[in-house]
Amino acid sequence: MKRTLPLIFALFALSTAQADEVQVAVAANFTGPMQVISALFERDTGHKTSLAFGATGKFYAQINNGAPFEVLLAADDETPAKLVKEGNAVAGTPFTYAIGTLVLWSADPKRVDNKGDILKKGGFKHLAIANPKAAPYGAAAMQTMSKLGVVDQLKPLFVQGENISQTHQFISTGAAELGFVAYSQVIKNGQIGSGSGWIVPGSFYDPIRQDAVILAKGKDKPAAVALMNYLKGDKAKAVIKSFGYELR
Fold this sequence. Notes:
alpha/beta, 5-stranded mixed β-sheet, 40% helix
């Protein structure tokens, strides 16, 4: 026993020395799955994560202004590519970790029909969308309304959220009768869990390919590399699919 104790302590010291913490900027729509994945990642690897949730466009500006983020999980594939091109992210590291789905949703179980016809019929005072300049789900919402030919008539009713989380909050609290959110925010057991909603056909908007990338500040950082690898693994993929995302 006396011989094994020093070995145990040495192994513990080694694992502690190797443990690392990674600063992660996460698109707001991915809040739920990332909280689950983060807990699994920390348990399985010993590394720690520090998570910040928000709009991809705002994270882009913060990263350019020196924010300490080491990994970005964006809500699009354009922002990571742009960061690589500008030298603020590591070339070769971007990959699509999820493909998002847009939903027209209301907390009222009788408000939204399963074809989205309410957008043409009206009968509501407020429609919530995320800022289309900063949030890809907001841009997808605008594309959807444009395809339906209802942008002009609905624009005066817009209640704009800074990101998709705030947009969901507007609807869930009744500040807006309905609005566009990420499927991941309302899914439960493989379907819309409460209220009423219309899962917008993917042909109505550009694919919401969500890419992850190691940022310049995370280059050669063990926890950053480990997290990116973990996101590609079966455990993370199972979580991502359970929240209604598609995988590439």
